[in-house]
Design a protein that fits this description.
With 261 residues, the chain is α/β, with parallel strands linked by helices. The chain has helices spanning 17-28, 44-56, 71-82, 114-137, 163-183, 201-204, 209-219, 228-238; strands at 7-12, 32-37, 61-65, 87-93, 146-151, 189-195, 250-253.
Length: 261
């Protein structure tokens, strides 16, 4: 009697924040985890702890410490993935790396350059397209696949010094809509997840993040911030096979934060 292969999730940004929480939650639901992360020596032990936690749940964990936005590294990772002949059920794009400099300034501070703008958009938006293209072309993700990309309310709002990332998030949401259209014949869905304000290392890098945390806590109907676990649990539910008709959306996972004026 034949058995279905154990499903895998491929998490881009697996060693912290939303990527870490989602890797652990999907492992709890029965998925093995491929993780792509970029860590230096000081933070590598935490990535190893995540892998150990996944294995403690009875799942496989295969992590790659590379730059997910590098074309050659992407091909190398997917060569290693393909060697295992997996069924990649979920791709999560959770890469937070970009410029947090203003476009213009009246105080003479450093401004975002062309190279920084292009790097931010390539890393936080365009790289999603390249990973999806290669996964589908290699036959690693087929019917029933789920593509998710982490966005934020900054994709539709102006926040001081967030301009490059805001532009990248808007691009990311546009890419999701286009991928949803073009992946439909493959029976693969694509959706963006708009998390509420979440206290992550990435958030702490935004100038004025303390005030943003304070305001969002007051604004949220639940009077607290979103957590990475809140988002991971929703992604795990959305990965169910019965969500095959949900695609091309930007889905709010924020406790109602975005509806409050």
């Amino acid at each position: 009697m034949s058995t279905q292969p154990q499903p895998w999730a491929l998490i881009l940004g697996a060693s912290s924040g939303f990527g870490e929480a989602t890797a652990l939650e999907l492992a709890r639901t029965g998925m093995n985890i491929f993780g792509v992360h970029l860590d230096r020596r000081a933070t590598l032990p935490h990535a190893e702890e995540i892998q150990s936690a996944i294995r403690a749940l009875g799942r496989e964990a295969v992590f790659f410490n590379v730059n997910a936005a590098d074309d050659e590294r992407r091909r190398e990772v997917l060569d290693a993935v393909a060697a295992r002949q997996p069924s990649v059920k979920v791709l999560l794009h959770s890469i937070a790396f970009g410029s947090l400099l203003p476009y213009v300034s009246a105080t003479g501070e450093k401004l975002a350059s062309k190279a920084q703008l292009e790097m931010t958009c390539d890393t936080m938006a365009h790289s999603l397209v390249y990973w999806v293209q290669d996964l589908v072309a290699r036959g690693l993700m087929t019917a029933g696949g789920r593509v998710y990309a982490m966005t934020s309310s900054g994709g539709t709002r102006a926040i001081p010094s967030y301009g490059p990332v805001s532009g990248a998030k808007a691009l990311l949401e546009s890419h999701i809509r286009q991928l949803a259209l073009e992946l439909a014949p493959f029976r693969i869905t694509a959706n963006a997840i708009r998390a509420g304000v979440t206290d992550t290392p990435s958030l702490r890098k935004i100038p004025g993040s303390g005030k943003l945390i304070e305001f969002s806590t007051m604004r949220n109907p639940y009077r607290r911030l979103t957590t990475t676990e809140d988002v991971a649990k929703c992604i795990a539910v959305l990965a169910h096979e019965n969500t095959y008709w949900m695609t091309g959306n930007t889905i709010g996972v924020d406790g109602g934060e975005d509806i409050v004026a």
